[in-house]
Amino acid sequence: MYRKFRSEVARHYRNILGWRTNRKIIVFESDDWGSIRMPSKEVYQACLKAGYPVDRNVYEKLDTLESNQDLELLFELLTGYRDGAGNHPLITANCLVANPDFDAIAASGYQEYHYESVKKTFLRYPGCERGFDLWMEGLSSGVFRMQFHGREHLNVELFSSALKNNDADIRFAIQHNMPGIMSKANGDTGNHYVEATNYRSQTGKMEVGRIIDEGLRSFAALTGYASESIIPTNYIWSPDFNETVFKHGVRYFQGYRKLSEPGLNGNPKVVHTHFLGKKNKLGQLFLVRNGNFEPALLRGNSAVEGCLRDIAASFRMMKPAIISTHRINFVGGLEISNRDHTLRQLKRLLDTIVTLWPEVEFMSSDGLGNVIAKDKS
After folding, report:
1. Roughly what angle, to the nearest 10 degrees, separates helices 202-223 and 131-141?
2. Are the CB atoms for 95 and 161 separated by under 8 Å?
3. 48 CB-side CA count, 13 A
4. How many C-beta atoms lie closer than 10 Å to residue 233's C-beta?
5. Does domain 2-313+321-350 have CATH number 3.20.20.370?
6. What is the Cα–Cα distance from 193 to 164, expressed in whole angstroms?
7. Contact call for residues 254 and 231 (beta carbons, < 8 A)
8. Where are the domains of the chain?
């Protein structure tokens, strides 16, 4: 009972500061689309056999490139619902526009890093060939709005350093088409190679800035529009990159209340705290997630109940509900029951939303950003 009470207090506390509205707006923000992560069941088993504890990290165990069927089933479900203005529930799909080019890396004698467009990545994987075309179809039908998450979900500085040091773990990863790998060390269940915007030196920081700049150019070329919002990978970000993304049309930052800025020269990281509608000196606004729908991380049925309580608290506090729901929930390439369970839970969630709040408005992150910016002006 005490734990439930604390959870309810926390739901309301995180909605105290920031922009308010009487409108019942719901945004689903979903990260990691287009990233390879764990390539296949066979590679997963090879990792276990080699001693990598991939069974102890849910992202290594379940997250993989979205298939044609994953996208088709998700879109079919979403198009079955509309709000009062005729809008479908839509996924703000925070995408990666590239992945490592493992063949080119191997051809360099494992000495040089190379990457490929996400369109090429989709074509490489059986059952995923229509992935990018489906992204565009989802965009046209109003259920899938791509925004920028990064060039690739990979720390290029760390990866390249391991390459040059002839690191055996990275050799294993490349040979199995994995963008990064876990450590075999006891107690370490993370994959630090996926922290794309982390850096350890001034040179590394400059490289991250260059990659972000290049990634945003690629995003616009691929989708045909600039990404007005972004979400930094692993919620790691330096304000020094704000001007770079501003030049590409980025006006809104997605994320939670806190973003971590890496430290240099042994200095500790700096944690920046934000609230909904907060402006930086360039006028860019922060959109703060205040809800979660993560069935793959929770399993069971608690994801729906928890999300509904998040939404109710946000509406009670006159805030839009900005719900985090990662791609891992919607993919079935490693475990089909994972995707099917999420779709059942999503249907139950949407059925309840349109019943409890018939005046609901479904929006994308950049759409919400535009509403807040207009209201503030």
Report:
1. 70
2. no
3. 13
4. 24
5. yes
6. 15
7. yes
8. 2-313+321-350
Surface-to-core class of residue 377, CB atoms within 10 Å of its CB (0-12 exposed, 13-18 middle, 19+ buried)? exposed
Out of 163-167, 226-230, 357-361, least confident range = 163-167
CA 88 to chain CA centroid, nearest Å: 21
Residue type, 119: K
Longest distance between any two alpha carbons in the chain, whole Å: 59
Paired tokens of 160: 């390249």
The predicted model gives 348-368 an average pLDDT of 98
For 323, the enclosing helix (H) or strand (E) is strand 321-324
pLDDT tens digits, 287-307:
999 999 999 998 666 899 999
Please count the residues of the chain. 377
Predicted TM-score of the model (pTM):
0.96
Q: CB burial class (10 A; 0-12, 13-18, 19+) of residue 291?
A: buried
Cα 12 to Cα 298: distance, rounded to the nearest angstrom: 21
d(CA 265, CA 112): 26
